[in-house]
Design a protein that fits this description.
It contains ten helices and 17 strands. It has 430 residues and is of the alpha/beta class. The protein folds into two domains: 201 residues, Rossmann fold (3-Layer(aba) Sandwich); 151 residues, 2-Layer Sandwich (Ribosomal Protein S5, domain 2), CATH 3.30.230. The protein is elongated, with a radius of gyration of 28 Å.
Length: 430
C-alpha cells in the first residue's frame, strides 16, 4: 500500500480517493459478482447434472471402492509413505483413463519429465492423451488445464506446489490452502476429476493442515511395508460411496496388480503343526480376511521379562497377559513373550483378542491348535469374551473357507463366553 498526495496523472493535490479493487482469481478468472448464476440459490430439482456422470478408472475394483468410478468435478486425496507406490498407482490410473480417449494431465512437482516418461514406459502407459508437466507453480498447472481442459488432473504432490497468492515456503499452511483451493475451484469449473497426492508423517498421518481432508470428497490411504510386495488401499472418506473399504494390491514390475480374493492372501505357507500360531477372521472395512497371529513364549534370564508386539499395539498384549495371569492363574514372570501379526498386516480391531490369547496359550503349553481352527472375539478385563461387529460376515466367510472348529463369542451359535472355556476347549486344561 502506498500513500500519495499528488495525482500522478493531472498533478493536482488532494484529489485522490481511496477505493477497494477486487483481487483477480488465480489463472485469470474474474471474481464472482452478484449476477453470477453460481452464486444465486436454485431449486435442487432444477439443477442440471449433465456432464457429471462417473467414468471408469480402468481398475474395476478401484471403481467399486470409490462408488461408481471417477466423478467429474470431484477431488480425491491420496496419502501414503514415500516409496509406497502412490506415483506408480496414479500414473497407472492416468494411463488407463487416457487409453479410454480422455485427456489426462499429470502435474509433478517432484520429478522431471524424463523420469515420468521412464516410469510410464515401464508400466506401458504411454498414450497421446496422457499429458505431463513438471513445475512447482500452481499457475503453470492452471494455465495448462485452461488451455486444454482434461478429464483427469493428477497433482503429485500438493505440498510441492506454490501459489503467488500466498506467502511462505512450499508445504506450509497458507501455501497448501491456497494451492488446494485454487485447484479445487478450477476443476469444478472445468468439470474435471482432481487427484491430489499428500505426504504423510512418520506416524502415517497426512502431513500439513487437516483442512485438505475436509475440502476433498474422497480420502485414500496407501499402506504397507516397502519390503513386502503387497499394498493396502483404504478409503477413509467417500462422498460418493462406502467408507472404510479395503483393496489389496501386489506390487509387480508392470505396476500395481489387484488381488481379487485376499481372504487367505496373508496366511502364506503356514505350518499348522507348530505351536504358537492361530488364525483370526478379521474384518477390515467390509472385507473379511483370514490372518495368522503368532506368539512365542520362551524362558527368560532377565530380571524384567521382555514383551514385544508387531502389527498391533503392544499395550494390548500387556493387557491380555494381565487378564490371563489373573483369570487363569498363569505365571508369566519367568518368560519372554513375543507376538506378531503374520504377513506384515497391521490390525487394530477388537476381534484380534481371542486369537492372540489362543496363540499365547498354544506357545505356553507347547500344544498346536487344530489345523483348520479360526478364532475371533474381544476379551475384556474379567476374562469374558465379548461379541464383535460383522459376526455373520465372519462366520459365513469362515465356513466358505472350510475352517473347523470355529471359535467365536456367540454362545447361541455354539461359541464360548470366557477364556477359561477357550482353554478347556482347545487345550483341555482347567
Amino acid at each position: 500500500m502506498q500513500w500519495r498526495g499528488q495525482c500522478p496523472n493531472c498533478h493536482e493535490w488532494n484529489t485522490l480517493q481511496a477505493a477497494v479493487q477486487p483481487k483477480s482469481a488465480p489463472g485469470g478468472n474474474r471474481p464472482r459478482t452478484a449476477t453470477d448464476s453460481s452464486s444465486r440459490p436454485i431449486a435442487l430439482r432444477d439443477v442440471e447434472d449433465a456432464g457429471h456422470a462417473p467414468y471408469g478408472s480402468g481398475l474395476k475394483a478401484l471403481d467399486r471402492v470409490l462408488g461408481k468410478g471417477l466423478v467429474p468435478g470431484a477431488a480425491i486425496l491420496v496419502g501414503g509413505e514415500p516409496g509406497i507406490g502412490k506415483s506408480t498407482m496414479l500414473l497407472q490410473v492416468a494411463g488407463l483413463v487416457a487409453a479410454q480417449g480422455r485427456r489426462v494431465l499429470y502435474a509433478s512437482g517432484e520429478e522431471s519429465l524424463p523420469q515420468i516418461k521412464g516410469r510410464a514406459e515401464r508400466l506401458g502407459m504411454l498414450d497421446h492423451n496422457l499429458m505431463a508437466i513438471a513445475t512447482s507453480r500452481v499457475e503453470d498447472v492452471l494455465e495448462a488445464a485452461n488451455a486444454a481442459p482434461p478429464a483427469l488432473l493428477v497433482v503429485d504432490s500438493v505440498q510441492t506446489l506454490t501459489s503467488l497468492e500466498a506467502d511462505g515456503l512450499p508445504g506450509n499452511v497458507s501455501q497448501v490452502r491456497a494451492v488446494a483451493t485454487t485447484l479445487l475451484e478450477a476443476c469444478r469449473r472445468l468439470s474435471c476429476t482432481l487427484i491430489l497426492v499428500g505426504h504423510v508423517t512418520k506416524d502415517g498421518v497426512l502431513a500439513g493442515p487437516r483442512l485438505l481432508e475436509h475440502m476433498v470428497d474422497t480420502v485414500i490411504s496407501l499402506e504397507g511395508d516397502r519390503r513386502q510386495m503387497f499394498r493396502l488401499l483404504r478409503v477413509f472418506k467417500n462422498r460418493f460411496g462406502p467408507n472404510e473399504e479395503l483393496l489389496v494390491f501386489r506390487m509387480e514390475a508392470s505396476g500395481m496388480q489387484i488381488v481379487d480374493d485376499p481372504s487367505t492372501f496373508f496366511l502364506g505357507q503356514r505350518d499348522p503343526s507348530l505351536s504358537g500360531t492361530a488364525v483370526v477372521m478379521a474384518v477390515d472395512g467390509q472385507r473379511p480376511l483370514a490372518v495368522e497371529v503368532q506368539a512365542l513364549v520362551s524362558r527368560t534370564f532377565l530380571s524384567i521379562p521382555r514383551r514385544a508386539a508387531l502389527g498391533f499395539d503392544v499395550a494390548r498384549l500387556h493387557l491380555l497377559l494381565a487378564v490371563l495371569e489373573k483369570r487363569l492363574k498363569l505365571n508369566f514372570g519367568q518368560v519372554d513373550i513375543y507376538a506378531k501379526v503374520g504377513g506384515g498386516m497391521k490390525l487394530s480391531e477388537p476381534g484380534l483378542d481371542l486369537a492372540l490369547v489362543a496363540a499365547v496359550l498354544s506357545s505356553y503349553y507347547d500344544v498346536p491348535l487344530p489345523e483348520k481352527s479360526v478364532l475371533w472375539g474381544e476379551v475384556d478385563l474379567n476374562g469374558q469374551v465379548r461379541p464383535v461387529s460383522a459376526q455373520d460376515l465372519r462366520l459365513t466367510q469362515a465356513r466358505r473357507l472350510g475352517f473347523d472348529p470355529i471359535v467365536h463369542p456367540a454362545v447361541e451359535q455354539g461359541g464360548i463366553s470366557t477364556i477359561a472355556a477357550l482353554q478347556q476347549k482347545l487345550f483341555h486344561r482347567k
